[in-house]
Automatic annotation (TrEMBL):
Domain of life: Eukaryota
GO molecular function, one term: dipeptidase activity
InterPro entries xref list: Peptidase_C69
Protein name: Secernin-2
Protein family: Belongs to the peptidase C69 family. Secernin subfamily.
GO terms (BP aspect): proteolysis
Pfam families: Peptidase_C69
């Protein structure tokens, strides 16, 4: 049997004023993964940890921080980290697969998805998250299988890190890294290196390593993506470049008028490939966040918890003291019997589908076999999403909701969506 093509990773987007219609920073991400992989949405409250506590990540243990922020994560249910998420300090992070000239360590270390979660746990700003992730890279490295499959598949990572005031693009090659600060307008990344000569921060040995390897003469301007680009990229990297270009065009079409609704429409765009459904891979989870510049207003995070955003509902989540964890978007847990935990890993698979995933799966089948019923269901789901957006608009206009209502938002939307599927 032919080996399935590697995923094209994902697409991350950000709009900062004046790119946004309002005085908001808008973050968006599609997570493109093996098509049957389940993403769950998890809430973790802020927590204090005893000094000396060790933290079990996907493959390795590292020292735990003494305090971790509250987080909401969209994550492949077999691993510890996350494809994307936000914390209660107004920080959002998403990651991408990239391939560079630096060799991929065959051993198990921190996944890029682990680094997403660790950045959210430990940082109260986008730059703080850059510092957290690069520090952990230096100590522990990155590596290990990136999908739930015995066939080896690993990559390096780039990240989009966003807060209420600015964004950072972080691109890595092993333990080396480079970062670019973005303070206005629209920007996107896909799974290719995008930082050239506009470098805001970098690993102190980045250029000396490039010289020692014979990748850069040391003369003239240093261009990261030219010096570190892979000489043997995956076959589908050319398609990834088209996705990046297509995503840039979609963003630029709306430059000056980007809203959460616009970002959702970009994530749903199939002709560009941003909303992916190709062979063994598809968009398995999506996220859009509104980060108001005004610190008195709450940040709003929309997550699908289901694949294919063109046929999913973006459901709002707001951090509050009364957040209700939603068990129906949490996958079954298998503890030490999980095939991911056993050595050798990935020798079997278990059913990781949560209740919403299973209901959505049935709805997708209806959409495909009965187009009229499918169109009616899609219209109903869009009405639910539209009502959520209307309520959020009122909230951002200054209406003061009851604290309990904020904590119930995501729970209520999931509950309503499930009823529509019945």
């Amino acid at each position: 049997m032919a080996e399935p093509e590697p995923p094209l990773s994902c697409d991350c987007f950000v709009s900062l004023p004046p790119g946004s219609q309002d005085d908001h920073v808008i973050f968006g991400k599609n997570s493109d993964r093996p098509r049957d992989e389940v993403q769950e949405v998890l809430y973790y409250p802020a927590t204090s940890h005893p000094s000396g506590t060790m933290l079990e990540c996907t493959y390795i243990q590292i020292p735990q921080a003494e305090h971790t922020h509250a987080m909401v994560l969209s994550r492949p249910s077999w691993l510890w980290g996350a494809e994307m998420g936000a914390n209660d300090k107004g920080v959002c992070i998403g990651n991408e697969a990239v391939w560079t000239r630096e060799a991929i360590d065959p051993g198990e270390a921190l996944l890029g998805m682990d680094l997403v979660r660790l950045g959210l746990e430990r940082a109260d700003s986008a730059w703080g998250a850059v510092s957290v992730i690069t520090g952990l890279l230096e100590q522990h490295g990155q590596g290990g299988p990136c999908r739930e499959d015995p066939a080896p598949f690993s990559y390096h990572n780039s990240f989009l890190l966003v807060d209420r005031n600015e964004a950072w693009i972080l691109e890595t090659a092993g333990k080396l890294w480079v970062a670019q600060k973005v303070t206005e307008g629209v920007k996107n990344i896909s799974n290719a290196l995008t930082i050239g000569t506009d470098i805001s921060a970098e690993h102190p040995e980045l250029r000396s390593v490039a010289q020692a390897q014979g990748w850069w003469s040391g003369e003239g301007e240093f261009c990261f993506n030219e010096v570190f680009k892979s000489e043997t990229p995956p076959a589908r990297m050319e398609l990834a470049k088209k996705r990046y270009s297509g995503g840039t065009q979609l963003l630029q079409q709306h430059d000056g008028s980007v809203t959460a609704e616009v970002m959702m429409s970009i994530l749903r765009d199939k002709p560009s490939g941003i909303c992916m459904d190709s062979g063994g891979f598809r968009t398995t989870g999506s996220m859009v966040s509104i980060l108001p510049r005004d610190p008195s207003l709450p940040c709003i995070h929309f997550l699908t918890a289901t694949p294919d955003p063109s046929r999913s509902v973006f459901k709002p989540f707001v951090f509050s003291e009364s957040v209700i964890p939603v068990s129906r978007v949490i996958s079954p847990q298998y503890g030490p019997d999980d095939p991911v935990r056993k050595q050798p890993r990935f020798q079997s698979q278990v059913d990781r589908r949560h209740d919403l995933y299973k209901a959505h799966e049935g709805a997708l089948q209806t959409m495909e076999t009965n187009p009229d019923a499918g169109n009616a269901l899609t219209e109903t789901l869009r009405m639910l999403e539209g009502q959520c957006l209307t309520d959020i608009s009122a909230l951002l206009s200054g209406e003061s909701p009851v604290e309990e209502e904020l904590g119930d938002l995501f729970f209520d939307c999931v509950d309503t969506e499930l009823k529509f599927y019945q």
